[in-house]
Amino acid sequence: MAAFATRSAPFLGLAAVLCVLAGAQQLSPSFYSRSCPNLASIVRSEMTSALQRERRMGASILRLFFHDCFVNGCDGSILLDDTSTFTGEKNAGPNANSARGFEVIDAIKTRVEAACRATVSCADILALAARDGVNLLGGPTWSVPLGRKDSRTASQSAANANLPGPGSSLATLITMFGNKNLSPRDMTALSGAHTIGRSQCQFFRNRIYNERNMNASFAALRQRTCPRSGGDSNLAPLDVQTADGFDNAYYRNLVGQRGLLHSDQELFNGGSQDALVRQYSNSPSQFSADFVTAMLKMGGLLPSSGTQTEVRLNCRKPN
C-alpha cells in the first residue's frame, strides 16, 4: 500500500489522452454532467472529511483503486463482500487485513444515492475519490473519465494472480504492468503512489534485515518497530521523508537506498528504470505529469466483454 497538505496543485491538461480514452473506452469526464451534476463536489467533500479524520486514508483509497483496476478492470469488484456464490477479492493475499477505506466509499455512495439514485457506479466513485485523495495531499489533479459500470461478481483467485507483491523483482513488475498495457515508464510513475501510505512490518522485514542495497541507518530506524519476529502488523511509512504528502520524495528515497519494500528499491538497483527514477527525483513536475498520464491509462482498464455489470445501489453487494 496522516495529515493532508492543502497547498494548491497544478491542473495538468491532458486533453489528448482524455480524448483517446473517451473514444476507446467510451468514458467521458462529463458523463454525469446532467444526470448527477453535484457528483464531484459530493466526492470531494467526503474525501476532505475523511482525510481530516485520518490523513493516511488518501493512500488507502488510492490503493483500493489500484487493486480494483488490476483485477478485471476498474469495475468496483474489490468493494464486494463475499456471497454464497463467489469468494471475492477482499480476503485475497494482497488485500487481506490490509485493504481499507471501504467505509469511506460507503459514505460517499450514500450521499450520491440521495442526490441521484441508481445513476453513479461505485467504480466511478472510487476513481474520483482516488484522484481527490492525491490532490488533497498536495498532488496533482486531473479530469477523471467517467461512465464505468460495476461488476456483479469478484474473484479472489484473479486478485491473487494479478496483483504484484512487495517482494516482486523489476522483471516481474514490468511484466505484470505490461499485462495491463502499462509501460515500464507507467509502472515507475504509478509506483510513486508509495510517496504516501504505510506498510506492515511483515512485508519489509526481510529487506531491513537481509538486503544489502539499503542505507544502514534507515534499516536501523525501521528495525526499531519491526523486530525479527512478531509485530507483523506494525506500520512504517512508505516514504520516510513526507509520509502523508504527495510529492517526489519517494524517488529521492530510492536514490538514497531508502526504499521500504523490496519492490520499491528494485526500481533503482542498477536496472532499466534507474535513469527515470533519478529524473523523477530531480523533477516533481515530470513525476506529476507522468503519474497523471499513467493513472488515466490505468483508469481506462475496463472489464472483459461478457462481464455482467450494473450500477450497484450498495457498493458491497450486487443489486
Automatic annotation (TrEMBL):
Residues 1-24 form the signal peptide. Heme b binds at residue 194. InterPro entries: Haem_peroxidase (IPR002016), Haem_peroxidase_sf (IPR010255), Peroxidase_pln (IPR000823), Peroxidases_AS (IPR019794), Peroxidases_heam-ligand_BS (IPR019793), Secretory_peroxidase (IPR033905). Its cofactor is heme b; Ca(2+). The keyword Signal applies. Residues 26-319 form the Plant heme peroxidase family profile domain. GO terms for molecular function: heme binding; lactoperoxidase activity; metal ion binding; peroxidase activity. Ca(2+) 2 binds at residues 195, 239, 242, 247. It comes from the Eukaryota. Keywords: Calcium, Disulfide bond, Glycoprotein, Heme, Hydrogen peroxide, Iron, Metal-binding, Oxidoreductase, Peroxidase, Pyrrolidone carboxylic acid, Secreted, Signal. PANTHER family: PEROXIDASE, PEROXIDASE 72-RELATED. Belongs to the peroxidase family. Ascorbate peroxidase subfamily. This is Peroxidase.
